[in-house]
Amino acid sequence: MKSLQGKLFLSLLALTTALSGVHCNSKTASEPLVKEPADPNIVAKIGKYVIVRTELERALLGELYPSQYNYFKTDTRPADANSVLMQMLADKAMIMEARKQGYLNDETLDLMIKRYRDRRLANQLLQNYLQQMKDQIIVTEAEIEQKIKADPNTNRARFKATLENTRARNFVNQYYKQLYEKYHIKKLSENYPQAIKIHDRLLNHPKTPLKMKRIMNNQIKEEMTPEERNITMATYDNGGKITLEDWFYTLCEFSPPSRPKNLNTPEGIDLILERALMLPIYVTEAKLQNIDKDETFVKQLSVYEDNVLLNKTKGDKYREVRDAGEPTPEEILAYYNDNKEAFTTGKVMNIDQILCQDLETAKKAKAELDGGKDFESVKKEYSLDKARKPSKTFPSNEGLFWKDLWPAEPNDIVGPIKGFRNQEIKWRIVKVLDKKEGQLQEYSDKLDSRIKSNMLSERGAALVKEYGLEILKKYKYEIYYDRIKDIDPLNIP
Predict the structure, then answer these.
(1) Which pLDDT score, from 0 to 100, does residue 94 have?
(2) Which residues of the chain are modeled with pLDDT < 50?
(3) Environment class of residue 341 by beta-carbon count within 10 Å: exposed (0-12), middle (13-18) or buried (19+)?
(4) Phi and psi (nearest 5°) for 240?
(5) Which residue, among 389, 367, 370, 371, has the nearest Cα to 380 in the 3D structure?
(6) What is the distance between the alpha carbons of residues 391 and 115, in angstroms, rounded to a whole number?
(7) Quick check: 91 and 310 in contact, CB under 8 A?
(8) How big is the CA angle at 445 (ends 440 and 449), to the nearest 5 degrees?
(9) How many CB atoms lie within 10 A of CB 228?
(10) Which pLDDT belongs to residue 34?
(11) pLDDT at site 68
(12) How crowded is residue 181: how many other Cβ atoms within 10 Å of its Cβ?
């Protein structure tokens, strides 16, 4: 693992040393520098992708938050704009490489993307339809007043929401009936007996024993023949059909307790088939209305595909780490000795705080507290969260700000110091109510599984980063350093 980390350091060093202005990883020194884009928000480009300043700022802020629920290394150096931007470019490069390598041909990924695409199309179709019907859905003031006259205890908002939801559902049901007739759905009930027989086989005689008695998605792919999966259960206009594979995937969308109990009967088969028909019918109509050509929809689908490809790539790297074998007992003990902070439990502070709009406000609040004014009244005057109650905080909540808070003792009022507020960093004044030092968990075999998990996670993250930077060398990218040199989420006013 040391050699892996060494390579990673050298890769980062080579990619970030002595760069300024516009950087382009051109293959020859004679190539001219690329002109900066006219849009000043663009900070980097690679292939068809552009990264804008707001994306980088959001990603950089995200890197500052603790990455693990119960463990944060308090001596961790904060991320900087350059390193985060390089990782964002590396992610794009991994996506481009995954497309190039044909990952989208993977049956599992293809199914995931198809399901997302179809649901988005159906949702947009129904939104468009309900928008057309809105005048008939909206509950008027006259209707509300009439209801209140009949029942003075009526909650206006609840009555309005309930009635509008009911009307919307009714319109959707009517719309589906229209589409059902429009596309001339024909069920092939002569194939129901085959469906019953195959269902019984998968449920009661699986090739691999089931942990729970329920058919799983993987059985559809692994235990059904291509001929069985392609059995036609229903057809509709425009060349559409529902196969037995579609039927089983629809069944698996039901939680086991809600799956029909009569799937050994034609009635049970028909019940799932009705459900299986709905989405394809909506999708067919959506495509007829060219919703799949809508620019916003196309972008959303592309973003989803990118996320699927990136997660697949990263997942493969983490599997490589797991397949390489578990850490040795010597490595486990060494990791414990080097990271004892991770195995300290109960380290906590109970605090009250005044989160301020800016540094000037925080200084005013602190001056009034130093002058003898009580904490609660200053909090009511200056805090962004006036109703916020005292609460416990941990290293995992505070991240890199823990080091500013932990030295304080009970009854101390510290600040101005920085802290997290939702997705922002704000100045604050903190009153320490009490604190506990925590207790180090002495090493024992009981900690082995947790240590292994931490080690494999860190190794996987390192391998993903190294792979991403290596793949990035294959693709031309541009970074406009003049546009990011002032980005620092810690430099707040």
Answers:
(1) 98
(2) 1-21, 26-33, 69-70
(3) middle
(4) -80, 150
(5) 389
(6) 42
(7) yes
(8) 90
(9) 19
(10) 52
(11) 52
(12) 9
- Which backbone phi and psi does 440 adopt, to 5 degrees? -70, 130
pLDDT of residue 11: 39
Residue 435: name the closest of 475, 393, 467, 399 by CA. 393
pLDDT of residue 21: 47
Instruction: Output the 3-class SS for the chain.
Output: CHHHHHHHHHHHHHHHCCCCCEEECCCCCCCCCCCCCCCCCEEEEECCEEEEHHHHHHHHHHHHCCCCCCCCCCCCCCCCHHHHHHHHHHHHHHHHHHHHCCHHHCHHHHHHHHHHHHHHHHHHHHHHHHHHCHHHHCCCHHHHHHHHHHCCCCCHHHHHHHHHHHHHHHHHHHHHHHHHHHCCCEECHHHHHHHHHHHHHHHHCCCCCCCCCCCCHHHHHHCCCHHHHCCEEEEECCCEEEEHHHHHHHHHHCCHHHCCCCCCCHHHHHHHHHHHHHHHHHHHHHHHCCHHHCHHHHHHHHHHHHHHHHHHHHHHHHHHHHHCCCCCHHHHHHHHHHCHHHHEECCEEEEEEEEECCHHHHHHHHHHHHCCCCHHHHHHHHCCCCCCCCEEECHHHHHHHHHHHCCCCCCCEEEEEEEEECCEEEEEEEEEEEEECCEECCCCHHHHHHHHHHHHHHHHHHHHHHHHHHHHCCCCEEEEHHHCCCCCCCCCC
Asked if omega into 489 is within 30° of 0 (cis), the reply is no
CB atoms within 10 A of CB 235: 15
pLDDT for the residue numbered 73: 60
Query: The tokens 């950087």 sit on which residue?
Result: 23
Give the pLDDT score at 74: 57
- Beta-bridged to residue 187, according to DSSP, are 234
Name the pTM for this structure: 0.81
pLDDT given at position 170: 97
Closest by CA position to 416, among listed 376, 378, 361, 488 = 361
Residue 1: name the closest of 220, 328, 344 by CA. Answer: 328
* Closest to 490 in 3D by CA, of 425, 396, 430, 406: 425
Domains contained in the chain, CATH given: 1-121+294-345+445-493 (1.10.4030), 122-290 (no CATH), 347-437 (3.10.50.40)
